[in-house]
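Sequence in, structure out.
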Amino acid sequence: MQTWKVGELAKRTGLTVRTLHHYDQIGLLSPSHRTAAGHRLYVEDDVARLQQVTSLRSLGFPLEEIRDVLNGQRMSPLQVVQLHADRLRQQVKSQQRLVERLDALAAGLREAETVSADELIQTIEEITMFDKYYTPEQMDYLKERREQVGEGRIKEVEAEWPRLMDQVRAEMEAGTDPCDPRVQELARRWKGLVEEFTGGNEGIRQSLGNLYQNESTVQGMDMSAMRPMMEYVGRAWGCPQQA
């Protein structure tokens, strides 16, 4: 029987040891065996479950929901893989349409020679990035949602995000437990801002999660710095509610 220690599995999969430990702690993925010295040992069934976790995570499912889906056998391994493949095919088609649109724009700009093509293309790419992750129906929904919220509130939220992220980052760097009341309050605010954007629409939330997981920058935000904060806040959401 082939087995992997936590460090070996982390290295092979590109995940971190910390992530695998966290999956174990929340009951999402626990190693089936341990050595006499207490070291975690993963077997092939554990790797199969980890693949399902990774696919569902990339689709924007929160960890708690993934645990419920897998533990409740609400999806078979085949269904998880098919769902992931279908979503990727949709993204590939959207990306191809975006490439064609930008190529045509670039050609027109080269002929005009009046505006920097690079600057315009970068701007348009930023704007149309959402086309890769949101369906036309979702884009219409977001437009309506923006009108409902109002430009004044949107500007307030845009100013609130950097302050909130600075506070979350400070607690992370200080090593504060995600279940600490201070972090719980930050997580509550974070969730509130996300729900204000999505309007509680689950499809929009999953598309937003895919956007954050797959892009290096989103509206000027460095996603490599953002993702650890998202995971930290997600752990806070999984804490028992304070009485």
